[in-house]
Amino acid sequence: MSVGGNILQAVGNTSLVQLRKVVPPGSAKIFAKLEWENPTGSMKDRTAQAMIAKAEADGRLKPGDTIVEYTGGSTGISLALVCVAKGYRLHIVTSNAFSQEKLKHMSALGAELTMVPSEGGLTTKKLILDMIEAAREISKRPRTFWTDQLNNLDSIAGYYPLAEEIWSQTDGKVDAFVQCVGTAASARGVATVLKRKNPNIKIIIVEPAESAVLSGGQAGPHKIEGVGIGYTPPLWEPSLVDEIIAVRTDDAKAMARRLAREEGLFAGTSSGANVIAAIKVAERLGPEARIATLMVDSGLKYLSTDVYRQ
Predict the structure, then answer these.
(1) Is 199 exposed, middle or buried (0-12, 13-18, 19+ CB in 10 A)?
(2) How far is residue 65's CA from residue 56's CA, in Å, rounded to a whole number?
(3) Quick check: 37 and 15 in contact, CB under 8 A?
């Protein structure tokens, strides 16, 4: 065991485990990357680290600056972690649409929060756009750097190591990768590397059925936190995508509960959606195939929500 210099060296190199009980007999093997092993409990530590490191390297971000971002929580928590490690102040624009655990975690790490009201606690296109505009106004202040995650190409490279880990852990024997889309950075980053290694690997994208805009549907409110922004994200790259699967919020929540009770995997709603989509693909591909997907974040971030609330 090596000794790291600071908390940021604990990002990445997460475990990959096979799902055993929720996958129907005769289906492909499904492997889940446990991204909650990252320091803040989500995959977003990877992209936060990448965005800030690149901005430091090219001079957009300087010592003493304040960082601002709009976020449903996980990116904000990850940015807060990096800001603690590197000595930056952080201003987060967020909403009551997202779990109390996420909001409290950001505050605990020292982030200043600006709250934008939602429509009944739901994620909608209007909410996302309102949050973006609030962040834009704050970014006009002196010595303020806006990471602007939906438009930040640096965020994609943060997920290249995730793809390398999947490739290494499966010995290159992976037939499909399944992931929900929020900013599209994680799916694009992983797909870029995996397709380079094997162009035949299928990339399957997951989105909320209530707001299946990537599938050609209408935007609508849903409750799969962190994904389904209600319009095509600027980082979306359709040439890397082989299929899009829409999953209902209630089904994603139910699968998250099944993962906890049957697999011992305590994850959030988007992870449940990932597994539902992965199972659909696994049933088609058959028992000789291998599918990788992500446990995007920890269920500890959702204890106050109706995903786990008794």
Answers:
(1) exposed
(2) 11
(3) yes
Specify the number of domains making up the chain. 2
Q: How far is CA 103 from CA 119, 164, 207, 224, in A?
A: 18, 31, 24, 16
Active site residues: 44, 270
Start-to-end CA distance of the chain, whole Å, equals 40
Q: Binning pLDDT at 50, 70 and 90, where does residue 73 land?
A: confident
Query: Residue for token digits 């962190």?
Result: 226
Give me the helices (H) in the chain, please: 44-57, 74-86, 100-108, 125-139, 154-157, 160-169, 185-197, 249-258, 269-285
Contact 294, 288 (CB under 8 A): no
Whether 29 and 48 map to the same domain: the answer is no
Order the strands of the 66-70 sheet from edge to edge.
112-116, 89-95, 66-70, 144-146
Q: What letter does residue 3 receive in the DSSP assignment? A: P
174 and 275 assigned to the same domain: yes
pLDDT tens, 102-152? 999 999 999 999 999 999 989 899 999 999 999 999 999 999 999 999 999
Provide the token pair at 153.
Answer: 């190409």
Cα separation of 309 and 263, whole Å? Answer: 19
Domain boundary among 146, 174, 196: 146
pTM, whole model, 2 decimals?
Answer: 0.94
Same domain, yes or no, for 14 and 109? Answer: no
Within this chain, do residues 124 and 247 fall inside the same structural domain, yes or no? no
The answer to whether 69 and 92 are in contact (CB under 8 A) is yes
180 and 210 together in one domain = yes
Task: Tell whether 284 and 210 lie within a shared domain.
Answer: yes
CATH of the domain at 245: 3.40.50.1100
Same domain, 166 and 138: no
